[in-house]
Amino acid sequence: MGYPNSLSDLINYFRKLPGIGEKSAERMALSLLELSCDDVENFAEAMVDSKKNLHPCSVCGHITDKDVCDICSSGRRNRSVICILEDYKSVFAFEKAGNYNGVYHVLNGLISPIDDVNPEDINIASLIDRVEKLDHPELIIALKSTIEGETTTLYLKKIFEGKNVEISRLSYGIPMGAEIDYLDEITLDRALSDRKKISD
Amino acid sequence: MGYPNSLSDLINYFRKLPGIGEKSAERMALSLLELSCDDVENFAEAMVDSKKNLHPCSVCGHITDKDVCDICSSGRRNRSVICILEDYKSVFAFEKAGNYNGVYHVLNGLISPIDDVNPEDINIASLIDRVEKLDHPELIIALKSTIEGETTTLYLKKIFEGKNVEISRLSYGIPMGAEIDYLDEITLDRALSDRKKISD
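^ inputs. structure came back:
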């Protein structure tokens, strides 16, 4: 005899979340039943609310419950430094690190000819608009080092080249605290060719 | 700048689930936003429905969406063999193993004088009623081997002794496939004292 219907539905929904296999989904669904009725209702409400209230910021594309996100509307951020990211999850990662004082631009995807994702399919047009309004802005490209990431980086470089825009990308190399002997060869190769002088 | 309010609420609710730390809760909440609106609404509905529709079976105490659970109402189960469990999660574990053909009785707790949980606080009275209606029933006590589990087992043994009831408990010993050298001493000690003759 298996789970009652409503419970197996719930388990199936939990399995849609990343990294949740059958066993974890069962454990979560069963534990959910142990929360109070109020907690379960508020949890369900928070889910629906988040999905309904959050939408892209009209300036940078980061998710927000306002028209313009807190970062774009903050008076303390340097609006002439724009960090270009693939998705809003990366924005949260940068904000957690806490040392970046510029603003962001979320592309919401990467150029990928194989998957038929062209430059006009991602959030690039609005970036060009933003950059044109600024006097000598700095763009920091922070995309992952896959074919799609590199293609997008090159495309952005080509667009903004010669337009009085300073462009950089994040450094590649050994992650902090990593054991050298466990690193993959491509990262090690990259770290070697991008080596920095320490006499400076 | 942190998460928008509705998102941080959602993250906090995910953290109430077992084994979910801050990082996983964030990942889940953010991935939930990537599901379709319909999926999120149905997920939320499944949560509330499960909590509302599921209640203890009036016979055995297992959770069900009916008055009597599928196991108790099944014609194929041997109703004179009752396996006594702490909670409904254990019922699902037994049903998954799939080799048990009797019925269950969920105590919904264990006797624990320290936490002020007495025999009348758990589902024992209804077990006595059930047993009295049966002719020479078999009780299989499947409680964990903690002080509370042992106390409850002893209490049950005392109640049903001399009443034409066959009582057994699950065997303790080495889990299947476990490495002997990694086992804790108490389990190893128990496995030794409970050793079985293989010449039989």
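Residues 92 and 174 of chain A are 22 Å apart (CA to CA). Chain A touches chain B through 53 residues (CB under 8 Å).
thumbs up if we can close this ticket
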